[in-house]
Design goal:
Layout lengths: L5 H12 L13 H11 L4 E4 L7 H11 L5 E5 L4 H10 L3 E4 L4 H12 L4 E2 L4 H7 L7 H11 L4 H8 L3 H15 L4 H11 L6
Parallel strand pairs: 1-2, 2-3, 3-4
Length: about 200
């Protein structure tokens, strides 16, 4: 069980331990502890929050599956941004469910993933399908977009990245085009909603 909120871990753990075929054998509040716990306990299943302090849940999944390719990981999140879902599944997660799901749905998802099947929360499945129609941003465009969302101007971004201001303008122009928005504010809003960036 990997979640940075103790109360969430405690609630989920007691709920899952009430099931005859389930037992929570380890908990972690961040990606580094999750990796260490996986190495030590080799659980048959991992419930992983998407947003963790430091390394993200998707990065934690990538680290675990790199060393343990058969790791069975189900993402559990309050967030339904298409980019976060896509990154998690690309990293090796076998399913994605929202924390707002009913208990019975969570248990179904856990059992399904444990059987080697994939599971996508019905709420996020259409978002993932929509993701395939969007043009991806480059890593530099995401970097610029993150600074735009923080309210930084082109000159300030150029100085921070040690690039020409005209290059920043070009990146911003590409971002607006790819996100199909009119201005910087819309770009930041769309990117946050889709999970392309976060201001955590």
């Amino acid at each position: 069980m990997v979640d940075d909120h103790f109360m969430v871990r405690m609630g989920l753990s007691s709920s899952l331990n009430a099931e005859e075929d389930m037992e929570v054998i380890a908990e972690a509040g961040n990606a580094e502890d999750a990796f260490a716990a996986y190495r030590k306990h080799r659980p048959s299943m991992v419930l992983m929050d998407v947003r963790l302090p430091g390394m993200s849940g998707a990065e934690a999944v990538a680290s675990i599956t790199r060393e343990f390719p058969d790791a069975c990981i189900l993402m559990l999140s309050t967030h339904s941004g298409e980019e976060e879902i896509h990154r998690s599944l690309q990293a090796g997660a076998r399913g994605y469910i929202l924390k707002s799901a009913m208990r019975e749905e969570l248990l179904r998802a856990i059992r399904k993933v444990r059987e080697g099947k994939r599971y996508l929360d019905p709420v996020v499945a259409p978002l993932l399908a929509e993701h395939l129609t969007h043009r991806p941003l480059t890593s530099r465009e995401v970097e610029v977009l993150r600074m735009v969302a923080k309210g930084m101007g082109n000159k300030e971004i150029a100085a921070t990245l040690s690039i020409a201001e005209v290059t920043v303008k070009l990146h911003v122009s590409h971002v607006l085009e790819k996100l199909n928005v009119k201005d910087r504010t819309e770009a930041a809003t769309a990117a946050l909603k889709r999970g392309i960036i976060s201001l955590d």
